[in-house]
Structure formats: C-alpha cells, structure tokens
Design goal:
This protein is α/β, with parallel strands linked by helices. The chain has a domain of 135 residues: TIM Barrel (Alpha-Beta Barrel), CATH 3.20.20. The protein is globular, with a radius of gyration of 19 Å.
C-alpha cells in the first residue's frame, strides 16, 4: 500500500459519448485513517455518474487474495446502520457468501453466477444446479440472461430462490423476463427501462 494516496484517477475514453448513460461503482473495501483519531475507518464508496468524454478506470487487487476481514467489516457497517432488513449481500465468490452466512445468517445473500459455473453440470440438468444453489443457502441468484429459460426460472422459484437477470438492455427483454417472474435485472440502459410503459 502506498504511504501517500494518489490524487489521480485513471481514465479511458467513453466508448459511447453520443448518449447519456449511468455508471454505478461500489467500492466496499474503501479504507482510510480518521483525521481526528488516526484510527482506521472503513466504508463503502458509491459513485454514480453520467460520463462525458472519459470514464473512470476501476482498480482492484490482482493477486487473487481476498481483502482480509472484508466480510466482518461489511456486516458491522450494515448492523451499525440497522440495515439488515434492507440489505442483500452479493458476490461471485461462493466462499465469501458462505462466510457471510456464518457470521450474519439474518442478512440475505445474492449469488452472482458466472458462465463458468454452468460448465460443471450437464447442460439441461437444472435439478443438479438448483440442488447446488440451495445447498449454498443463498436467497437470490443473478444469472446471465442467456441461461434464464422459463424452465430454469420455474425450477429456481420452486425451490424458493429469486431470479435476477443480467444484462437486460431492451424493453422487449425486460418485458420477457418480467413475464417469467424474474425478480430483478441489471441493465446498462436504465434510461430505456425507466421509460418503458408500466402495465
């Protein structure tokens, strides 16, 4: 860790400067020193912006080592804000979700399923996939939209799991997944989905 923080943000050219869209960044592992006490402070940094010519480049740990104590810090921040009933903890990492379940079983967990996960199972064997997800005791499952067939969504619902589709960028897709009973979507185009007629 540098002894002095950088005041420079790395950027890259906006690939779509002709249209407005929202970029949402959450950095749960933000740390700093309290200017008053000199003690470490932990926070989640949330940045929402509409880019002009440049976008902010995100930096993460590239060594594969988890941030030590991240789960405990996150749970403590949620408890300090009395936000247990308003929080869903999300991760691609099942080990992190399991650790969160052990230290905070009362806070809901959301597994974001990478495409590679499905390669562990026979293509159409939803039963094995659902059994595995249920055994991990998650509440929500975020899945690439290509894998969210009607039978897979039904199988998730039948076992008490909520489905979340990503990335949904057209009104037609949004309408399709809503009709399937998908509970949430991730989108790059909130402008289009917010303008969609409500029925």
């Amino acid at each position: 860790m540098p002894s002095r923080p950088s005041k420079t943000l790395d950027t890259f050219a906006n690939p779509n400067p002709e249209r407005d869209y929202l970029i949402h960044i959450e950095v749960p592992e933000f740390t700093c020193l309290c200017p008053k006490t000199g003690q470490p402070d932990f926070a989640t940094l949330v940045l929402d912006y509409v880019p002009d010519l440049l976008c902010v480049e995100l930096k993460t740990r590239h060594d594969g080592v988890p941030y030590p104590g991240l789960e405990e810090i996150t749970v403590q921040a949620i408890r300090n804000a009395s936000a247990e009933n308003r929080t869903i903890l999300s991760s691609f990492n099942f080990a992190i979700l399991e650790k969160l379940r052990m230290i905070a079983p009362d806070i809901r967990r959301h597994a974001i399923i990478a495409t590679e996960y499905f390669s562990r199972f026979p293509t159409s064997d939803y039963a094995q996939i659902i059994d595995d997800l249920v055994s991990r005791q998650v509440d929500w499952v975020a899945v690439n939209k290509a894998f969210l067939t009607p039978s897979f969504v039904d199988a998730l619902h039948n076992r008490g799991l909520l489905a979340h589709a990503w990335v949904v960028n057209t009104v037609e897709e949004f309408t399709h997944f809503a009709a399937l009973g998908v509970f949430a979507v991730t989108t790059d185009r909130p402008d289009i989905l917010c303008a969609a007629p409500r029925t």
